[in-house]
Design brief:
homodimer, 382 residues, Ubiquitin-like (UB roll)
Chain lengths: 382, 382
């Protein structure tokens, strides 16, 4: 997939991943870009997260983004901060940028191991020399245990494009459980408008992917916009939302050991906050996830998850639809369990809920909980 | 184990459980009792929970408690409410009590199936006829998929005793995931004092058992005190705390598919709320639980769980001790991973954390996450 106009990217093998797979990605724009970031809420944050947040607070434009996989450079004390700064410095030098502040950084991988700076210093110039207009090498270089690259694209009316790439979050390799999402566009908005739009988009998309409930120390979602092409705020917001939804679904579907994407659509919420919270609670319940894995139309677990979400619901009218069949509406409804179980034998299981408390809607994505998840996460050794 | 003075109990086979195991328990006191209750925070509550809460609000004394296993009588609409009332009525009649309001009810089992009232009407008088001073038949009758009965006892200085029984919570059979705990004592406090003590005890014990994060629709913890023996408030509070801690540990250890009890001790919290929250977050992290199952000294997951707990921590000084070995103190410390993994091959794994933010302490209990958990919860079919 081609990058939007004015962007170039690369992905190379720096040797940071023991597997020898691509592990260093670089993206650069011909001109300064407006940008916005959402990061992990975990109190334990990697230096790349802290530094990018400080960059965002400065409200200055940026030119480039450098990412490594295989090492999170997190919980490494002072040394980790210096190494992360040096990561940006090396990228700025390699790209001929005079200000390293114009470079954002991201790391994903094992926590508590020193970033191998010799490999970084050799790999970044190699990436700078390999820059091109295809997003795929970059998309591959940011993966950890993801099985597939995750890219999505929308074309805008004015000729511009939105291209997003991501790597998986949670239910992926322990200590490597990071969600990274980068969305590039040659459309543009002024910085304050872009920030407002991005916060809203991330809240409805990446924050609604629930996997094993753990939040990584390195999670971040960044949008970079060079503003070359005309685009209205509504159009761009819609496009960012569409691309981010596609990436969120791809992340959930590629969860560790997952066989099924679970989509939970909630209607009838008192407000959006409630609707999104109920959707997330159902998609994140271990019991619901295990039931989906076993193709068990177990609406009791869904009802219980709604109840513990904190969302207001009219329990005398709450309705649950599982793979198209209404199984509960204030009280249990008769259904053919064998047939419904058969309908659940699909890589896409959809749960639709009416909270009967208002008109707000929300959605969340998750994946089933398989024995493979436990095996992968128990057998991995630090 | 003998009940405290003035209590009698029974457990019988009413036929509610398909297995034919004991499934109906009854406890009665010779005189009115002070009591207190803590219940599930799930918005979806079984009629027994709703009714007991209304009884508590009336501040009236009670005489008896009747419990069934095998059917939660939850999400059954209006009919479930009538059936639960009738459950109490039948118990009152069988015990010769003129006021059914003096009888508390509890149900645990499958959600959304009608309580078989013919079996209840036959079983309750049978239990009333079998009353005795041994707690064990009652402890057995309240189990669902628990592997063992859970009882604990403390003797008080004035000759009184505290005897508690419980059944497992979470990580137990789907739709049967309920924690029930009943603590009986022949000591006593006035109702307001008992309520204050019980709220504090439950917050430090049963609420700190974390299993799969799901909260049942039927959870409750009740203390019943007939006040025959003298006991000071501090002494009784201590005894209730000890018994409840023992039951909480027993519940965690008997989690579905669990091989290991995980105890998380937190020190250095800014306040107790933080310390308990951090302990619960670590004990409840799927990644930590899977790591313990794999005997993997993966401190990165513990640090990340602390970070997402919301507790204040001085990250430059946070310390993590795993099975006695300090593995992290502001930065990673060297340790022999093979030896530590070997030390983790125990039915008891202890994680000790210093948040370095104050002097408050907290504790939580959980269990490891095994592939058996997933199998049990996926293969069960409604």
């Amino acid at each position: 997939m081609k990058l939007p106009t004015g962007f170039r990217a690369a992905g190379v093998r720096a040797g940071i991943k023991p597997s020898g797979k691509p592990d260093l990605g670089l993206v650069v724009s011909d001109e300064p870009m407006a940008w916005a970031i959402a990061t992990t809420r975990n109190l334990v944050r990697a230096p790349c997260v802290t530094r990018n947040r400080a960059r965002a607070a400065s409200e200055q434009a940026v030119r480039a983004l450098v990412v490594n996989a295989g090492n999170a450079n997190c919980a490494n004390g002072e040394e980790g901060i210096w190494d992360n700064d040096e990561f940006a410095n090396v990228a700025a030098r390699s790209l001929g940028l005079s200000r390293p502040q114009e470079v954002l950084t991201a790391s994903t991988g094992v926590i508590g191991r020193k970033l191998p700076m010799d490999l970084v210093r050799a790999g970044v110039p190699q990436a700078a020399a390999a820059l091109g207009d295809d997003v795929e090498p970059f998309a591959e270089a940011i993966l950890t245990t993801d099985l597939v690259t995750k890219v999505a694209e929308v074309r805008l009316g004015g000729g511009g494009r939105v291209v997003g790439v991501a790597k998986g979050s949670g239910m992926i390799h322990p200590n490597l459980a990071t969600m990274l999402a980068f969305v590039f566009t040659d459309a543009g908005l002024d910085q304050p408008a872009l920030r407002a739009v991005w916060a809203d988009v991330v809240g409805r998309t990446f924050n609604q992917v629930t996997v094993d409930g753990d939040t990584s120390t390195n999670d971040m979602a960044i949008v970079l916009a060079n503003g070359r092409r005309p685009a209205g705020r509504e159009e761009l917001a819609g496009a960012l939302g569409w691309v981010s939804t596609e990436l969120a679904r791809a992340i959930a579907r590629d969860g560790e050991g997952a066989t099924t994407l679970i989509t939970v659509d909630v209607a009838g919420g008192r407000d959006e906050r409630d609707a999104f919270a109920a959707a997330r609670a159902v998609a994140g319940s271990s019991l619901v996830k295990a039931a989906v894995h076993g193709r068990d139309p177990n609406w009791g677990r869904i009802l219980s998850a709604i109840g513990q979400s904190g969302a207001v619901a009219d329990l005398s009218a709450v309705a649950i639809r599982l793979q198209g069949t209404v199984v509960y509406r204030g009280h249990p409804l008769p259904f053919d369990a064998t047939e419904l179980s058969r309908a659940m034998r699909s890589p896409d299981v959809r749960i639709a809920i009416d909270l009967a408390a208002g008109a707000a809607e929300g959605v969340a994505w998750g994946c089933d909980l398989s024995a493979d998840y436990v095996k992968i996460n128990a057998l991995y050794t630090t």
